[in-house]
Design brief:
GO terms for molecular function: NADH dehydrogenase activity. It comes from Ceratopteris richardii. Keywords: Membrane, NAD, Transmembrane, Transmembrane helix. This protein is about 75% helix and about 0% strand. By secondary structure, the chain is an all-alpha fold. Helix 2 packs antiparallel against helix 5 (about 65-80) and helix 5 (about 65-80) runs antiparallel to helix 10. The longest helix is centred in the N-terminal third of the chain and has 33 residues, at about 10-40. The chain starts with a helix and ends with a helix. The relative contact order is 0.16.
Amino acid sequence: MSGYGSNNKYSFLGGLRAAAQSISYEIPLALCVLSISLHLSGSLSTVDIVEIQSKYGFLSWNIWRQPIGFIVFLISSLAECERLPFDLPEAEEELVAGYQTGYSGIKFALFYVGSYLNLLISSLFVTILYLGGWKSSIPFVENFIQNISINYGINESFDVLKPVLDIFTTLSKSYLFLFISILTRRTLPRVRIDQLLDLGWKFLLPIALGNLLLTASFQILSIN
C-alpha cells in the first residue's frame, strides 16, 4: 500500500517485490506450524505446545523432533522479516529504498519499528514452537526448585518469582534468534529476486510439504 500510494515507479516495484516475497514464504511457515500441531502437541494452543516440550528440558524440545521444519521455519522467518540475505524490498542499490522511498521522518521510522517488531515476534514464535518456550532448558530443574520451595515453606515466594523467571527464559531464548538474524546480516550476501522466489517455491515449499506428509504418516502409524 505504501509503494502504490507513493506514485513512484521505484516504490511500486519495491511494493510488488515485498508482496511476492511475503506470499512465497508464508506458506512454508504455515506448513511448519501445522507439522508441530499435528504430530507433537495435537493442538494449536501455544501453552500446549510448550508443555509438550517441558518434560526433559532441552532434550524434549521440538527442534530435535522436527529439525527439517526448524530449518525451514528459520529461513522463512528471516525472509518474512526482510532481513539479509532476503531484504530485496529494501535493496537500496537497485530500488533506491524499496517501498519506503517516498517516506521520511517519523513515517520512515515507523517502517523500521514495524520491521524490528516483526523480527521480535518471529523470534518469540521460534522460541515457543521449537525451543521450549518459557520452560527451563535444564532437565527437572523446575521440579527440583518447586520441591525445595515446598519443603522450606517458601512456596508463595516461588509463585511470585516464577513468572519473572519464565519471562527471562523466553527472552533469553529469543535473543538467540535475534543474534542469528543480525549475524547473517553481516556475513551473507544479498540474493537476486529470482533466487529468492526459487528458494521459496522450488525448495522450501516442497520440503515443508514433505515434512508435513511425513509427520502425518508417523501420526497414523502411531495411532494404529
